[in-house]
Structure formats: C-alpha cells, structure tokens
Design goal:
about 260 residues, protein homodimerization activity, 11 helices, Chorismate Mutase, subunit A, mainly alpha, isomerase, binds ligand ISJ, aromatic amino acid biosynthesis, chorismate mutase activity, CM_II_prokaryot
C-alpha cells in the first residue's frame, strides 16, 4: 500500500522508478554529446589561457557567457540544473514556473561542478577526442559546454535519487545521518546490480548510436564515432562514483 509520503512523491513526479528512468534517458544525451564533441579534434587552443588576451580561456569565455544568458532566461530556476560558474550569474528575468521543490533546502545547494570541470578537461577529453587542430575553437567550446551540462545534470541528479531513497526508508537512513556515517550511507544507497546494468547499457547504446552507417552494406561495421568502452569507463570511473558522492553529501545534510 502506498504511504502518504510515496503519494506525495508520485504527485511531484519523483519516485525511484522515475528517477532511474530519467537517468536512463540522460544516457542518450551524454552519448550524443560525446559524439558531437568527437567531431572535432582536441583543438588545444580552446583551453589555453594564453591563446587570446581578452579572456581566461576560450572555453571559460563561452561557458560563463552562455550560462549568464541561460540564467537570465530562467535555466537555473529548475532545481535539476547546476551552473559551472554560479558566481557570475545574473538573476532570472523570466516568469516563474512551478517546478516541484522536493529537495531539502540545506542539501539542494550542493554543487560539485568544479571537480567535474577538472575531470573533464584533464582526464576525459584526451581519452575520446583525436589529436589535432582544425581551428574550430568556438564550436569546440560550445560542444564542450553541452557535454559538460549533460554530465553535470546526471551527476547532480544524485540529489533526487537520494531524496527518494530517503523518503522510501527514513528509518534506515536516519541513524546513519545522525552518526554522519559516510561509509554506512554509501553502502546503503549502493545497488551493484543496477550499476552493472548501467555500464553494459551505455556501452551498447554507444555502439548503436555511434556506429558508422553505410548506404547498403555495413562495410564500416565495427567502426564507432566514440569508442563504446570509453563510455563505459566514463560511467565506471566518474559518472557513477560522483553521482554516489552527491547522494552521500546530500544525505549528510538531509536532517539539517
Ligand atoms: C543512482 C542510483 O544509486 C547508485 C548509483 C548508480 C548510478 O549512478 O548509476 C546506480 C546504482 C546505485 O548504486 C540508483 O540506485 O539508481
């Protein structure tokens, strides 16, 4: 039988099933964004602070300014969105939309985009883009931003996952939160079987979405726009662990 709390979750559109479905749909966005970024080579001047004197680096310039425009248009009114440079944002000039507010206010503010930014530039990019320079730095930075936003949304979705898990079994979570027991919380919110399915599915999606398609025969069979094993590695090494880190950080603040 549904409890009052799970009815509330249903009304607001967040249940463990619905958050897992949202994570599955977000895989598509991440994989398409990886494919789009892989269209360009590394294009290192995009990230070089000495490339142009008028801004820090081209990628920072594009990200800060695009976020600023999107903030004004209301993007960050949605609690699922988290900016990379919150310190530079103007307030929204758009009318309010009644987004469901299910997150605990103390915990809703978690933002680990600085770590995501560093991981993306230092570890992930070199693993899936070709070496080289074709001069398309602004287009490259725009692709970086779309991909960074998709990865960030997925990782910060951990707040919603944590909230629905907490509401489903507060009696299990509360003692661990009171004891501020990170390890205990991490064990309780981990479902290894789900993680294995996620890793297998993203590898398969990357091989379906990113395969080269010939007009008649599949002469290019086995050639992919982004190596499917890199997508699985991205999830295993960063996306899943960082989503779980957000969940733990959220829960630690859940009773505050
Ligand atoms: C997101 C969840 O929490 C954890 C993190 C997962 C992930 O990031 O894909 C998967 C399973 C859990 O270990 C979940 O339970 O669905």
């Amino acid at each position: 039988m549904a409890t009052a709390d799970s009815n509330t979750d249903l009304r607001n559109g967040y249940t463990i099933m619905s958050v897992r479905e949202a994570l599955i749909r977000q895989e598509d966005t991440i994989i398409f964004s990886l494919i789009e970024r892989a269209k360009f080579p590394i294009n290192s001047p995009t990230y070089d602070k000495s490339y142009a004197s008028s801004f820090d680096s081209l990628v920072e310039f594009i990200v800060k300014n695009t976020e600023s425009i999107q903030a004004k248009a209301g993007r960050y009114k949605n609690p699922e969105e988290n900016p990379f440079f919150p310190e530079y944002l103007p307030s929204s000039a758009a009318p309010n939309y009644p987004f469901p507010q299910i997150l605990h206010p103390e915990a809703a503010l978690i933002n680990i985009n600085k770590s995501i930014w560093k991981m993306y530039l230092e570890e992930l990019l070199p693993k899936f883009v070709a070496p080289g320079d074709d001069g398309n730095y602004a287009q490259t930075a725009a692709c970086d931003l779309s991909l960074l936003q998709a990865i960030s949304r997925r990782i910060h979705y951990g707040k919603f996952v944590a909230e629905v898990k907490f509401r489903e079994s507060p009696q299990e979570y509360e003692p661990l939160i009171r004891a501020q027991d990170r390890e205990g919380l991490m064990n309780l919110l981990t479902f290894e079987r789900v993680e294995e399915m996620v890793k297998k599915r993203v590898e398969k999606k990357a091989s379906v979405f990113g395969q080269e398609v010939g007009p008649v025969h599949d002469e290019n069979q086995g050639k992919y726009k982004v190596d499917p094993s890199v997508v699985s590695l991205l999830y295993e090494k960063w996306v899943i662990p960082l989503t779980k880190l957000v969940q733990v950080e959220y829960l630690l603040r859940r009773l505050g």
